[in-house]
Amino acid sequence: MDYLAAESARIGLLSRYIRPYANKGRKWERTIASLPEAGDIFRRTFGIRSLPEGLHPGYVQEAAVSLDIAMALADRFPVSSGWVRRFREALMHARTKAIASTGAKLLHDEYAVVASWACAEPAFRQMRTKSGLCILNYPIAHHRFTRKLLLEEAEREPDFAGTLNAHDWRKWLEDRFDVEIALADHILVGSSFVRESFIGEGIPAEKLEVIPYGADTHLFEPPTKKPNTDIFNALFVGQIGQRKGISYLLRAYQQFQGPKTSLTLVGKIQGDGAAFHPYREIFRHIDHVPRPYLRGIYQQADVFVFPTLAEGMPLVVLEAMASGLPVITTPNGPGDIVRDGVDGFVVPIRDPKIIVEKLECLRANPHLRAEMGANARRRALEFSWEVYQNRIRAMLQSWMQTVSEAEASELAIYPPNRISR
Length: 421
What we know:
Shape: globular
Strand content: 5-15%
Number of helices: 16
């Protein structure tokens, strides 16, 4: 959403951008960042929420900051009991409600609003009274599709069911998603996989617009020289849970591993960690790190493995490709960007055997690894944030022009070219 807001501002469409805490480079933020120990903590956590180029802090209206901080602190602790999960859900509900309420209150003379899922309903309802344009940003597959898939997964993999945080969404949240989808004129999604999940749930295809996300191809790039080692390093980055197909990766690596192989999992382990105990000796775990710190981790790997079950368009896949890594992944989200046999391999979900096969292929063929890695880097350049912003600009200008032509008399009282986020 930050890059969407930045491009809206650059072309003169943005009125305001409502979001949780943002690092605006204020004096107190600069002071904290300069401190020896506290500064490092800040830079690794809230400090990374800096605004992209082109998005002036004056456009940004922060909302639910205290709840946002409380959620971030709560996420530092493992889910060890039901009350912890309920507490987190209560915080999420309150934060979402506060952001949604603030967005609706700040709507004035705009004739379009772009809102993220779960935060859109109040603003959309208000915009409907003005015959304005409602654009919904939806980052993952349709919630009913996702829920069904993950409930099925919980039955297939009961040991990992506790890592499926999304499979037990509360009814209030699903009801809100349904209302937002119904009120939206257009729905932005990141991949054709997500688009098809919406169509499969009865959403008209004409409401859906696929705009693939981007990656920072300047930060993430291949190393000038690969580490001088004969270890074959496999890497996974993301939430370490079953929605990402983690049990299938662990089983595959268990079969594949050897004295000169390694598996690194980077991210926050979902659930209480019990499901990972039988595999704890076969992987190295690095807790969640900010994106700037991931650069070196990608550059030390030989292959990126991401056997996800359901995604929107995972940024980590693009980051790995931009870093010159061949990718082993599934069609359920990354299928639009990874070309099977060119940038890596696109494999079926839930298939450890074929993951082993592809790992063996890449380990045995360093020249193929290098070729696929080079292809992956070139492919990632087609999905930079600059490319994303160009696509967003063309889309917004087209939609706004349609609205202004169709409803010129109703929109005459509104300033031209203004869009609220």
